[in-house]
Design goal:
With 113 residues, the protein is an alpha+beta fold. The chain is built from 4 helices and 4 strands, in the order H-H-H-H-E-E-E-E. It is globular, with a radius of gyration of 14 Å.
Length: 113
């Protein structure tokens, strides 16, 4: 499953940009594909459920807007296949985006938001 998972970019920023674009288009199915595949070969359904709730609350665009403020966090990398972004609003931490390289397909995936 991980070898066939080609949804994502060659860099963490490219994957983040693709994810933001899917959110702006209200494309939950596509946005969900940018999340990591778990060891069981499937994506964690909680991410899709969260995207649906966010869409139904009319907040996908504001989430996309927040994510456009994401900055690389180069100090907290655990290993080479790990990458983090942080999001701040008015100087205060708003959230983190954890990404991981799918070494089988060579694309970066969202591990958590």
């Amino acid at each position: 499953a991980m070898r066939n998972d080609t949804y994502g970019g060659k860099t963490p920023q490219e994957t983040l940009d693709l994810f933001i674009d899917a959110l702006r288009k209200n494309d939950i199915e596509l946005a969900f594909l940018y999340f990591n595949i778990e060891e069981n070969g499937e994506r964690d359904p909680k991410w899709k459920e969260g995207l649906i709730k966010t869409r139904d609350a009319g907040k996908l665009q504001s989430v996309a807007d927040s994510l456009t403020r994401a900055q690389p966090d180069l100090e907290n990398r655990v290993h080479e296949g790990d990458f983090k972004f942080y999001v701040r609003k008015d100087g205060e931490p708003e959230g983190y985006i954890n990404m991981e390289l799918n070494q089988y397909s060579g694309v970066w995936k969202i591990e958590s938001l």
